[in-house]
Design brief:
By secondary structure, the protein is mostly helical. The protein has helices at residues 19-41, 57-66, 69-86, 93-114, 119-142, 151-174, and strands at 4-6, 13-15. The chain has one domain: Arp2/3 complex 21 kDa subunit ARPC3 (Orthogonal Bundle).
């Protein structure tokens, strides 16, 4: 019998395949949250707003390929909430930027994986759409056309960040035998 996770105020439950998947969701959420918090306190590699490597996204990528879409969505959502709680930005602008980027990134990564793309390309597309999602949220907050000029810079820097995260994800996925018992 599979475990159930409560996800709706209307009494609906979302079935997770089994207890092992639920344990992996918890572990990967912890890994992703730790990476999220560590990256949020480190000085940026490039001193431009919104430009980060996005190391926590490697966790979503690995979970997507190892466990599946539902589990990756859970990990992504819980990582964003917990990471923002721990870094003191919950329900602030940073939380909504993170949510917009993370959820748009997840949606594109999920679709790209279903189309059969390899992890490296899934990650690059995820990085592009993460920045697009964050840019959209920032545009809603700031409501200035000046942000349109910053979009190409964000997209340009998302390519090497997505490639780096994708490469790291591929290395971790090669070690997937560690996760099987």
């Amino acid at each position: 019998m599979g475990s159930r996770v409560y996800v709706s105020s209307k009494g609906r439950f979302w079935s997770i395949r089994n207890t092992r998947s639920l344990v992996y969701i918890g572990l990967f959420t912890g890994f992703g949250t730790a990476l999220h918090v560590v990256e949020s306190v480190l000085p940026p590699a490039i001193p431009l707003p919104g430009i980060k490597i996005g190391l926590a996204n490697v966790v979503t990528l690995v979970v997507l390929f190892l466990l599946g879409g539902k589990e990756a969505l859970c990990v992504s959502f819980f990582r964003i909430v917990l990471g923002n709680l721990l870094s003191g930005t919950f329900l602030g602008v940073a939380f909504f930027l993170s949510s917009g980027g993370g959820l748009s990134s997840f949606a594109v990564m999920y679709l790209a994986k279903r189309k059969g793309l390899p992890p490296l390309w899934v990650s690059i597309l995820g990085a592009l759409f993460h920045n697009l999602g964050q840019w959209l949220v920032a545009s809603l907050y700031i409501q200035s056309s000046a942000l349109l000029f910053y979009l190409p810079i964000l997209l340009l820097f998302s390519l090497p960040a997505g490639a780096g995260v994708g490469y790291l994800g591929m290395l971790l996925l090669k070690k997937e035998a560690l996760f099987k018992t």
